[in-house]
């Protein structure tokens, strides 16, 4: 039950981030819905395609689809002043989504017998793939390649699971807390990977 709640929180947090970016780009209500759904479900859809999970399983989450749809509507009609708080508090919920999705993606890959490389890709793309698609649809450079460290934490989580270091609910919970904490620390201290520009 706890894991399902965290998954719901992460999904809705991703949907809100997609809807807000759509509004920042002056998209209409349809665009808000598309970016909200894309951010919420894009990563898990890509994961299913890559590791051979039937793509139609994405449609078994009927209640979550309704929740994302209603969340996007609420974001669209909320006063702008309220949405400004998302930049401050939304990062925490986004970190929850990153952690829960990364662990979910890596675990799904391990369960189908995928090699370590596929586990790493599944963890990374499930955690950050929706945001990448969202940024492309919004005409932006993907945030995960230029802002604070983001996708790396999902990849490291996948590595821990793929190597068999994470066994049982307690260790999974500890990994979840570690990913959330590292993501929050990277935002607070503005940790970045090395960059090099040719311009």
Detail the topology: elements first, then pairings.
Elements: H1 2-24, H2 29-51, H3 62-77, H4 80-83, H5 86-111, H6 116-137, H7 151-162, H8 168-188
Helix pairs in contact: 1-2, 1-3, 1-5, 2-3, 2-6, 5-6, 5-7, 5-8, 6-7, 7-8
Give the amount of beta strand, in percent.
under 5%
- Compute the gyration radius: what is it? 16 Å
Mean of pLDDT: 89
Relative helix content: over 70%
Categorize the overall geometry: globular
Structural class: mainly alpha
User: How many domain regions?
Assistant: 1
How many β-strands, per DSSP? Answer: 0
Number of helices: 8
Low-confidence stretches: none
Largest sheet: none
List SSEs in N-to-C order.
HHHHHHHH
Report how far the terminal alpha carbons are from each other: 50 Å
Précis, in short:
The chain is an all-alpha fold. Helices cover 74% and strands 0% of the residues.
Please provide a written account of the structure.
This protein has 199 residues and is an all-alpha fold. It has one domain. It has 8 helices and no strands. The protein has helices spanning 2-24, 29-51, 62-77, 80-83, 86-111, 116-137, 151-162, 168-188. It is globular and about 45 Å long. The mean pLDDT is 89.
Which features does this protein show?
199 residues, 8 helices, single chain, mainly alpha, 74% helix
